[in-house]
Structure formats: structure tokens, C-alpha cells
Write a structure and sequence with these properties.
The complex is a heterodimer of chains A (about 400) and B (about 325). With about 400 residues, chain A is of the alpha/beta class. Helix content of chain A is about 35%, strand content about 20%. Classes of the chains: A alpha/beta (about 400), B mainly alpha (about 325). At the A-B interface, helix 5, helix 6 and helix 9 of A face helix 9 and helix 10 of B. Chain B: Its main location: membrane.
Chain lengths: ~400, ~325
């Protein structure tokens, strides 16, 4: 059936998607509950969420092809990072994660707190404190260069230079006792070897670029004199100061006001275009995913459980976890006393079950799920899911 | 600016209060200086005339105002025991005490700070145990004992050190150091043992904070992370501690001057108390407290230099 819903102007969807209530962090991917959806059916709601552009399978696949043709920027393979908690206790925070990011692409890494998404992003920067963390296996290649084994000195040339990073808490992510200018400049001075005067001018330019009015004044101000949104803009300026090829954003909008969230996301996308870079966006907010991402990785229990292009994922989710996440979104026309949620909670990283890590909470679970950990399999060409429901079939069929 | 003015007002108020308390305490203390001077044989007439001579028969507030005026003009009256101006006595002794105290402070600063950073960088169980034992030991050692140990094992074995008396800086710098280093060490060692742990703690606290991760994500070398960012941020709690040390160091000089026979204010204070030489005691106490209050004032000002957020308050 080729039903086409009229295409909605991007900005309308943008506003509606970003104007969703507050951001309490609960076990269920809370952001998904905040949708403003007119239609009750999941498919239609998802369609609305991603901009109303209803696409059918052939279009999705066409999109995939163009993505595949693009050059690979970052390639993460079988990344495992464990934390030793005690003699026999090992938390498998990241347990065999593989994914790629192409040039110019925005990839969202989605998951509940504790799913290992932040550790994944930090380990690309090699900023996971070790010990207690331990790299068990894995490879991270940036432009075909392995960076996990680089000597620390070489790695420092990658950080802030080839990969920029922004964090969740703009309030505490800047050093309170140095001026904004100083903190932007030190990156420029270190990586580009500019003179102080040049660096300061560049810092002012960067501040203007990230949309800070009276940049000449702000450059000499301290972080406490700025609002949260402005600080996050400063963080983006710092991250982009050396034209990085990859921007990692670890929940960049979680701590911000809803209105500011939209601005910051818009700015990140603008900067991506400006500097011709790619974005790895870590978030638990499905709304943010819909607004920004090209492709989505869903993480659960330290593993990627589903990977697909954003529209494909919203319209045609495969993994029961992803489905459950999308189902938890409320809609305006339905009066519900309790918001839907996924029963149970994420198993702790030090005692994962032998089988599928989602089996306990999964409504489709059968015997095999409890016994054997499923592999991440291709359901269709560019759609992967880690679920036994698809292992027997050639792929594509929905249960 | 407003911050500095407020601190200044606070400083003045504190000093005023200190002067009232210092003056008041010696009015309440038992023991009559006049009787101490004249001995038990003296008769009423003699006592009364001396009292008049010293101005002790006038109303208290007048005596206080006179004394405060003296504080500003440097005329603190005459010492009862030495029969010479208190200010002259202080001027003689103050350089000795200030030298010992500042040398001790410098030693504490230059040892405790790097040591604290060093142990913060490599924290593990064994060094933690060693360090807390060192701290316990440092707190438990009485300074007079430490002083004597230093005299016996260092002072007697190395010709450089003099274990007795004082050589003014103006005469010979090496000479002054030879008399001051051991007393300063005596004060400094227990202080270092306790204070480097504060340094360690505040650096470890800072290392946990988000902004450190940001700096690392910029690809800056550890040297900049530690010595530019973490150190400046940890200076706020560390400064507080060093403000407190000043008071302890000044108090420490009193005992140490006895052990090393240094002609400092501490020694003068002890003798003057036993003689009920009130004008002298008052003068000494006043100067010591003003020094300590002043140093804390300086610390407050330094806070605002380091931390821009404090300037707002």
C-alpha cells in the first residue's frame, strides 16, 4: 500500500518534536513518551515524528545505497570495555560494539542510561579512565588509521583536532576559573601553533559562528556569566575550533531548556555542514534522533541491538526493544493515566543473562532467547537487528 | 572591587574587636602588675603613687583610648619589667619571629604543595597507608622534641648550623639562615605532614570534575591539565588551609624560640606573662593577632584573584 501523507515543512516538525515537556531521566527511554502525535498508530506517529515524509521501502533502500557509497570516516570494530568491580565481578559496559560512520553523516547512538553509549563515545576519544576500565578487545579506525594503539602523545593530536567532543553538562564542563577566550584559545594555540593575538581573533570568530552576540565581550567573560545554552555554544566552539572530522556529542541537549535544545541541535547540524564533518550523537531522546540523525544505532546492555537508517527505524522497527521504545511515546489525542513503559529494568552490566539481554523484558521471548545470545544479523541490506526472531528467516518479515 | 571593600571593612572591624578583647582580658586577669613590681613589702602609698604614674587609676575607657592611640602612633607605653618602650622591645624581637615564621611558611608551601600533587597523581593503596601513617606521626610529634632531635642529629653534626642565638639578616644572610633553618624546619615538618594531605584531597577532588574531561578532550598535555587547570582550581581550598597555617606557625614560634634560644617575640611573651608585664603582653598579643588577621585578609583577596565567582559575592 502506497499511502503518502502530505510532506510537512521541516520546521513545523522540528518545533513540535522539540517542544516536548521536561526531561526526567527514567528507566524507559523517557523522551519517546513525549511525542505530540495526532494519530494512534505507531507507523503514522513515527512518520509524523521524522518530518511527515512518508517513505516506502524502495525509497529507504535508495537512501541506504547513497550512504553506502560514501567514504568511511570512523570504523569501530568489536569494541569491548570492561570494568573490574571486584574479584569475580566484571561489568561489561561495552561488549562487542561495531559500527561505522561515513563522511558527512550524523549517526545517533540511542539507549537507556547504563546501556554503554557514553563509554562507547568516550572510548573513541580514549578518555575512559583505565583502570578501572579495561580495553578487552576492539579496533577504532579513523580514516583507516588505528587510534586505539596510538601512543598517548599521538592520541592527543587526534583529540580536539581530528575529533571534537561536547558533553552533557555545559554548567560543569568548562573550567570556572579561566575566561571563555582562554579556553577556546588553548586548543588553538596547542594544535595550530597560532600566536596569542591570532588565537584570540579566531576565538572571537568562532564565538560569532556559534551564534553568540557580542562575542568580543563574551571572550573575556567567565563561564558563570553565561547561560547553559550559551555555555553549550561555547563548548561547540571549542570542539569545532580545529575543524575536526568528527564531532562526538554526548547528550548535548539533555541538560538544556526545551527551547534551547532545538537551537543547539540546529547549530550542531549547521556546524557539521560548515566544517564538512560527521557527528556521532549520543542521546536517549528519540525526538532528538528524529530531528538530527541519518542513521541510528540502538544500544542495550553494552551491545548494539538494532541499526538502521532513521526513517527505516521509526517506520519499520525490528528489534522488540526498539519497538517497545517507540510504543512508549504518548500522543495528544489519547488520554492516558499512566504513560506506557517497558516493564522491568536493564540487567546490571556485571550479571548479564546467558541469553538475550532483553529477553527478561521482551514480550516475544521464547526458549532460545533465554539460552543463546543472538547475533547482530542483517534483516535487510542496511537494517540489522540482534534478535532470534529474525535468525530463521531470510529477513524482512515482521512478527 | 566591592568584594575587596567589604573584606577591608571586615578586616578593620575584626582588628577593632581584637583590640577590645586583648585590652579587656588583661583587666580581668588576676594579679596586679603594680604589686608584682614593688614586691610584697610595699605599702599602700607607694602602690597608689606608682598606679598614678602608670596611669592605671584612670577610668578603663580612657586607658583603652590611650592604648589604641598608641597602637597607631607606635607608643605602646613602657614595659614594666624592662623599663623601656614596648615598641622598642618589639622592634628588636619582631624580625626574629617573622623570619622564623615566614621561613617555616615557605618551607611548608614548597614541600607540601609538590608533595600533595605528587601523591595525588599516583594514588594506590600502599602509598595511601604510608601517607596516613606519616600524617599521624606528624600530628603526634611535639615540636620541642622534634627541635631537640634536629639539634642533636643535624645541628651538632653540620658546622653550618648554629643551634643557639640569632644573626640578623643585615649582618650575614648565610649567618641568619644558619640560625633560622632548624627552627623553621621544626615548625614546618609537622605542618607539612598534615597539610600535604589537604593538597592531595583537593587535587583529587578536582580531577573528578567534568571540566577536566573537557580539557583532555581538547588534546592538551597532562602538564597543562594539572598545572594550569587543576592546580588553579584547587588553590581555593588550599589557600584556606594556608591561611590557617599562619596562625599555627606563629603560635609554633613561641615554643621553638625557647628550644633554639632565639631572641624572638615568643620568648619575650613568655617572660612578660610571668612578670605580669601587661603593657608588653598587650602589645605582643595585639601585633600577633593583627598579623594573623592581616594574612587572612590577604588570603581573602587572593581568593578573588583566583576565582572570578567570588568577586560577585
Amino acid at each position: 500500500m502506497d499511502v503518502r501523507v502530505p510532506t510537512m515543512p521541516y520546521d513545523v516538525a522540528f518545533l513540535s518534536a522539540s517542544a516536548w515537556g521536561s526531561h526526567d531521566v527514567s528507566h524507559v527511554c523517557d523522551a519517546t513518551r513525549r511525542g505530540v502525535f495526532a494519530d494512534a498508530s505507531l507507523r503514522a506517529r513515527s512518520a509524523f515524528l521524522i518530518g511527515g515524509d512518508w517513505m516506502h521501502a524502495s525509497q529507504v533502500e535508495k537512501n541506504e545505497e547513497t550512504t553506502l557509497q560514501k567514504e568511511v570516516l570512523l570504523e569501530v570494530e568489536d569494541l569491548r570495555i570492561y570494568f573490574e568491580l571486584g574479584r569475580q565481578k566484571v561489568a561489561k559496559a561495552v561488549d562487542g560494539v561495531s559500527f561505522t560512520i561515513h563522511k558527512g553523516e550524523t549517526v545517533a547512538l540511542v539507549g537507556e542510561s547504563g546501556s554503554g553509549k557514553s563509554i562507547t563515545s568516550l572510548s573513541i576519544m580514549r578518555l575512559v579512565p583505565m583502570p578501572p576500565g579495561k580495553l578487552v578487545s576492539g579496533s577504532v579506525k579513523l580514516n583507516d588509521r588505528e587510534i586505539l594503539t596510538l601512543p598517548e602523545k599521538k592520541m592527543r593530536e587526534v583529540r580536539g583536532n581530528e575529533i571534537g567532543m561536547i558533553f552533557q553538562e555545559p554548567m560543569t564542563s568548562l573550567d570556572p576559573v579561566f575566561t571563555i577566550g582562554n579556553q577556546i584559545m588553548e586548543s588553538l594555540l596547542h594544535h595550530q601553533g597560532l600566536k596569542r593575538k591570532e588565537a584570540k581573533n579566531k576565538a572571537i570568530d568562532l564565538l560569532k559562528l556559534v551564534g553568540i552576540a557580542n562575542a568580543e565581550k563574551v571572550v573575556d567573560e567567565y563561564p558563570h556569566q553565561l547561560s547553559g545554552g550559551m555555555r553549550q555554544r561555547v563548548m561547540i566552539a571549542i570542539a569545532m575550533s580545529n575543524n575536526p572530522k568528527l564531532l562526538i556529542a554526548d547528550e548535548p541537549t539533555t541538560a538544556l531548556d526545551v527551547t534551547v535544545q532545538a537551537q543547539i541541535l540546529k547549530l550542531m547540524l549547521k556546524m557539521k555542514e560548515e566544517f564538512n564533518s560527521s557527528i556521532l550523537l549520543i542521546t536517549h531522546d528519540m525526538g532528538v534522533v528524529a530531528e538530527t540523525a541519518d542513521r541510528v544505532l540502538v544500544m542495550y546492555g553494552g551491545q548494539i541491538v538494532e541499526e538502521a537508517a532513521v526513517k527505516e527505524l521509526f517506520l519499520n522497527p525490528k528489534h522488540p526493544y526498539t519497538k517497545a521504545l517507540l510504543k512508549t511515546m504518548p500522543s495528544l489525542d489519547q488520554n492516558v493515566d499512566r504513560l506506557p513503559s517497558i516493564p522491568g529494568s536493564v540487567p546490571p552490566a556485571h550479571s548479564f543473562p546467558q541469553g538475550c539481554r532483553f529477553a527478561e523484558r521482551c514480550e516475544f521471548a521464547f526458549d532460545q532467547c533465554k539460552q543463546q545470545l543472538p547475533e547482530l544479523i542483517n534483516v535487510t541490506d542496511a537494517h540489522k537487528a540482534r534478535c532470534h526472531l529474525y535468525s530463521g528467516f531470510g529477513g524482512g518479515s515482521i512478527v | 572591587m566591592l568584594y575587596i571593600i567589604r573584606r577591608l571593612v571586615l578586616f578593620i572591624v575584626t582588628v577593632a574587636l581584637v583590640s577590645i578583647i586583648t585590652f579587656g582580658v588583661f583587666q580581668i586577669l588576676p594579679g596586679d602588675p603594680v604589686k608584682t613590681m614593688l614586691g610584697t613589702e610595699a605599702d599602700e602609698v607607694q602602690i597608689e603613687s606608682l598606679r598614678k604614674e602608670l596611669g592605671l587609676d584612670r577610668p578603663l575607657h580612657e586607658q583603652y583610648m590611650d592604648w589604641v592611640q598608641g597602637l597607631f602612633t607606635g607608643d605602646l607605653g613602657n614595659s614594666i619589667r624592662f623599663s623601656m618602650p614596648v615598641s622598642d622591645l618589639l622592634m628588636d624581637r619582631l624580625p626574629v619571629t617573622l623570619s622564623v615564621a615566614s621561613l617555616a611558611l615557605v618551607i611548608v608551601l614548597f614541600v607540601a604543595l609538590p608533595l600533595g600533587i605528587f601523591v595525588a597523581k599516583r594514588q594506590n593503596k600502599i602509598s595511601d597507608v604510608l601517607l596516613s601513617s606519616a600524617t599521624q606521626l606528624g600530628m603526634a610529634i611535639p615540636s620541642f622534641w622534634l627541635g631537640m632531635i634536629l639539634i642533636i642529629y643535624i645541628g651538632m653534626n653540620f658546622d653550618f648550623f648554629k643551634i643557639n642565638g640569632y644573626v640578623p639578616w643585615s649582618e650575614s644572610i648565610a649567618g641568619a639562615l644558619s640560625t633560622l633553618v632548624l627552627p623553621a624546619l621544626t615548625i614546618a615538618i609537622p605542618q607539612i605532614a598534615v597539610k600535604f594531605r589537604y593538597v592531595r584531597t583537593s587535587i583529587l577532588e578536582q580531577m573528578q570534575l567534568d571540566y577536566v574531561r573537557t580539557i583532555r578532550s581538547k588534546g592538551l598535555p597532562e602538564k597543562i591539565v594539572m598545572y594550569k587547570h587543576i592546580l588553579k582550581n584547587s588553590m581555593i581550598p588550599i589557600l584556606t588551609i594556608f591561611g590557617l597555617i599562619t596562625a599555627e606557625v606563629v603560635a609554633g614560634t613561641i615554643i621553638v624560640e625557647q628550644v633554639f634560644a632565639l631572641p624572638g617575640v615568643g620568648q619575650l611573651l613568655i617572660t612578660s606573662i610571668s612578670y605580669r608585664d601587661f603593657p608588653l603582653v598587650q602589645g605582643i598579643v595585639m601585633y600577633i593577632t593583627v598579623t594573623v588577621v592581616f594574612i587572612n585578609f590577604v588570603v581573602d583577596i587572593l581568593y578573588s584573584v583566583i576565582d572570578p565567582r567570588i568577586r560577585l559575592r
